[in-house]
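Task 17 of the worksheet. Students: predict the tertiary structure of the chain below and write it out as structure tokens. Keep your answer in the requested format; marks are given for formatting as well as content.
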Amino acid sequence: MVKNKIVIGLSGGVDSAVAAWLLKEQGHDVVGIFMKNWEDDDDERYCSSRVDLVDAVSAAETLGIEIETVNFSEEYRDRVFNNFLEEYSQGRTPNPDIFCNSEIKFKAFLDHAIELGADKIATGHYAQLRERDGLVQLLKAEDGTKDQSYFLYRLNQEQLSRTVFPLGQMYKTEVRALAKRLNLANFNKKDSTGICFIGERRFKDFLARYLPDQPGDIITPAGDKVGEHDGLMFHTIGQRQGLGIGGDGLPWYVAQKNMEQNTLTVVQGHEHPMLRSPDIYAENLHWISESQPRSSWVFGAKSRYRQKDAACTIKDTNELICHVQFAEPQWAVTPGQSVVLYESNVCLGGGIIR
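Model answer:
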């Protein structure tokens, strides 16, 4: 095996720590980087970055590798957070983790690692890579319950060719067991969830600091008013909680947002037809192989993370728009989220749901 200088992103979590140990065991020269991507109100009350840094340094000391902290907060605000606010202001529900990967972890971080003389970078993501016909393919992880290829679909050939995913063939239970055996203090640390810069605070409270409230009516498909909302940006398709609608019968779900009339349409029942979409259109496309998938071919698609692959075909696609038709209508398809296409366990790419 070729021995490389590999710079790994140490987040303070168990996954990146075990990934670093695996690389060191393979004989690579491993250096850790802790990325600081958020500075606004970064305190222990809301964000865990200080705790994460302590855990990352502790892991590096246990593993016997160097670690440094790099501040990418300016790049994060410019490339990720501003887009996040713009999407919400337009009534869409973005996924900032996807753009954090393509713009920060595998761009700003990669550029910094190259300046340090790195041959490769590594992260604790659960995904796999392989070379076929001169191209790097992104594959699902062996542990289907932890697969993160959905969040990595916007990576390009240059980024993937310089990346290593040491945990791709491991199961999470194996990772934790190994971490405990290595005496890593974070072996049982809870996995991070949600959006990193929001932390433990209420999403509505956070968003209201940046976008003004725009109250409007909550209506039924027939146009009957059943409540009021504080702003469309606080709601997403398929949402059940926090609507403030009483009454008897089936629970209410968000089915539609009308930006022009500032109305939120709700329906009763999880299986209401308005919550199902037979097809979708995606824009801002990215294909990992740099070529568009074949039309009329059967693929699997995820229109949200942790969703089972839904059988679909591409009815039409060009450089700007991709029309995906599902074999069975999908629940709560949400504008601003990503639809990611797969051929078996190979991630092809995808786009932003329009």
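Marker's comment: Residues 96-115 form the longest helix (20 residues). The chain has three domains: 5-181, 212-270, 276-353.
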